[in-house]
Amino acid sequence: MSEYVLEMKGIGKDFPGVRALDDVSFNLKAGEIHCLIGENGAGKSTLIKCLGGIHMPDQGQILIDGEPVTIDTAKVSKDHGIGIIYQEFNLVPGFTIAENIYLGREYTKGKRFKRIDRASMFRDADEILKSLGQEDHLNSKIRVYQLTISQQQMVEISKAVSNKSKVIVFDEPTAVLTQKETDLLFEIIARLKKEGTGIIYITHRLDEVLMLADRITGLRDGKVTGTINNGPNVTKDDLVAMMVGRKLDAYYPDRKITPSDEVVFEAKNFNLKGVFEDVNLKLHKGEILGICGLVGAGRTETMKSFIGAMPHDTGELYVDGEQIHNITPYELIKHGTVLLPEDRKNEGLSLAQKASTNLCIPNFDQMTRDKVKWVIDHKKEKEFVDKYFNMLMVKPALPDRLAMHFSGGNQQKLIIAKWMARNPHVLIMDEPTRGIDVNAKAEIYNIMNDLSEKGMSIIMVSSEMPELIGVCDRIMVMYEGRFVDEFTRDEFDETLIAKAQSGIRVHAN
Amino acid sequence: MKGKKVNLLAWILDRRALSLAILIFVLAVIMALTTDTFLKSENLFNIFKQATITIILATGMTFIISGGGIDLSVANIMSLSCVLTCIVYNATHSDILSILTGAAIGIAAGTANGVLATHFELPPFIVSMGVSNVCGGLALVITKGFPVLVNDQSLMYKLGQKSTLGIPNLIYMIPLFVAIGQFVLRETVLGSRMQAVGGNATAAALSGLNVKFMKVLTTTIGGLFAGLSGYLLAGRLNSGSPSSGGTLGMDAICATVVGGTSMLGGGGDVVGSMVGAILMQIIKNGLTQYEVNMYWQTAVIGVVLIAVCAIDVIARKASTMKK
């Protein structure tokens, strides 16, 4: 019998343009909680998906109880006793708790006609809920759509337990839970640990790591930065050091200008209950303002509510000193403020339409016939498309191609291009470089720099700290729905900012 | 107190068939009291005879919709089956061969729907529209547009036109098909898995289910029910008419949705679909009793469909808001 219930040795995984995992080794003992930490995009999720049979590693070996195994489907992963609770739950809403727990391994009765044996499923599912201390709150006959998020998570845990999992992986389990629900979850994790289940726990919350972990492994850029034993002398600083420390690459443009003091965009006391609170933000002319924070900090929601794509409870918005009373995307576009959404493929572009059509959608008023204002002049349309294709050097220069056939970087350029024609002076870019390759990133940075030199003001939301530090004049840090700290360019320090986004304030307020 | 209210609402929502049955009962009582003709056995038999084909189609449709799909082709699959079962009977005088023909046509067309939609990743809406036109066209080509007559010695004639113990034979088909459908959908592992795929395909795949196979299976079953209903329809009409399907496919979708099967997949209920079809037939019948212009029937059914769905959405929203 091996010392470890799970060993991953030298795991490597390549995606087009990215080495997601590079020689990652990781192991887990029975009855141990092993925390996995790292910034967004460090490779934690990829590693877990290799374990869950969603990705196949390109290199390396996985051993369960010392036996090498090949995990090529979700089913094989389960059969080896691995239970994964993903951030996105995988439940059938119309099914009962019991039917969800036993999906794919239903109980049957009867000889000639194999019938589903619901009575036994309910009985055993109730037994599992009881073993998790849930018998007073949950009944296995309840349908999943009637459950809260926390209860749905409990169903996922029950699924893993019912499968006699030796290893249970929790991927950011507390991101969606209240404090009370979190306490309950920790109780259950302690229970599982006591029964000898090995637990892999992924989180951004360093408090949780220090509280729960027996051992901690850091990942950065797909590589392991180290594995340490948890103990009283391990501090949050040690954890932050394991997560950050990338070298700043040389492809960021030189900032030649200093933004003026003129405020072009201001949000005062923006609130949306349970999502963001007391959001105050000033953006200056010619400034690139970075917004950083962990996934779930409320960045995207805040940006969307600025332009009226999401509601807010209270708050005032000023563009060029003028208060906007009716905050809708239409009104904000009229006032020269546009959002380039995080979800490029669904919210930014109409993928199944031509690139040219995408450029024209918000701009048809600029290509109508001189005399008949409601008829499109196709000559003007073509000139328009060519002009903006050239301006942003979209490649390939084939406007008739469907938007879905452009690379991520060029799709982002198309989105920028379609708004350039509206002559905006405030650009809110949410994760503008997510999922695009290094060279295209550099191009986007240069475009942003050029635009700001021409007087445009930009808010850039990003999960990648090096790019924020490389591109921005100022960085504001969001933590659990609030801006907790702010750094000017001369104060930029990856470690300090990383601390701030885990809730450890550097500046006094 | 609040909690109790929510549970009651959820309890009723979970039992659409029951709430519709209550509605049918109320409507029936009103009509029995206000008209002379409603309670006559002839009228009641008529309601159920007219509902039979819709119910059998809706039984198959319940598999398809709860499996996360949609099928616009069942009416024309039925037309083609209606024609060919008659032709085969006339050529062979074999009831068995005739029934098998209907089943085979249904299985073939249904499987084509499923395979095209899953393996070539075409939208089920478009695929089934295509299959529908192919089947409807073939039925017309084969018959040159004229009905195929059958003699009164055939089993289909007996099923469609005769009675047993004073009840038309066709009505016996309702419990038979609904029971089989409900059993397969709710009590077998396959049925349960088809619904899991409809409810959340990712969850189903992560649980090791073969999502594509399950999806094809739903359309194959839907096709089989359509093929068999073609045989029964031929008996009821006493001929194989190439345009007999008409709007019955839409009625089947309507009955299924009214009966509580969600268009988003998962949670299918064949009994609910049956009750939905009977409700629509009773409303149509009632409008005739009150001598409302026949052309209004279609419009009223449309309003019922929208109203039932709207009540469902509003009620569900209210029940989740309170949590």
Structural features, described:
The complex is a heterodimer of chains A (509) and B (323). Chain A has three domains: 6-243, Rossmann fold (3-Layer(aba) Sandwich); 249-336 and 424-504, P-loop containing nucleotide triphosphate hydrolases (Rossmann fold, 3-Layer(aba) Sandwich), CATH 3.40.50; 345-423, no CATH class. Chain A is 32% helix and 25% strand. Chain A is built from 17 helices and 22 strands. Chain A has helices spanning 44-51, 74-79, 97-101, 118-131, 149-162, 179-194, 206-212, 236-243, 299-306, 329-334, 344-348, 355-360, 378-391, 408-420, 438-453, 465-471, 494-501; strands spanning 6-15, 18-28, 33-37, 59-64, 67-69, 82-85, 108-109, 115-116, 167-171, 198-202, 215-220, 223-229, 263-272, 276-284, 288-292, 314-319, 322-324, 337-340, 426-430, 457-461, 474-479, 482-488. In chain A, helix 14 (408-420) runs parallel beside helix 15 (438-453). The longest helix of chain A has 16 residues, at 179-194. The model of chain A has no long low-confidence stretch (mean pLDDT 86). In chain B, the strands form two sheets. Chain B has a two-stranded antiparallel ribbon. The longest helix of chain B has 27 residues, at 211-237. The mean pLDDT of chain B is 86. Chain B has a single domain (16-321), classed as ABC transporter involved in vitamin B12 uptake, BtuC (Orthogonal Bundle), CATH 1.10.3470. The two termini of chain B are 13 Å apart. Chain B has helices spanning 2-13, 16-34, 41-66, 74-92, 95-119, 124-143, 155-161, 169-187, 189-199, 201-206, 211-237, 248-258, 270-289, 296-321, and strands spanning 148-149, 163-164, 167-168, 239-240. The interface between A and B is medium-sized, with 26 and 26 residues.
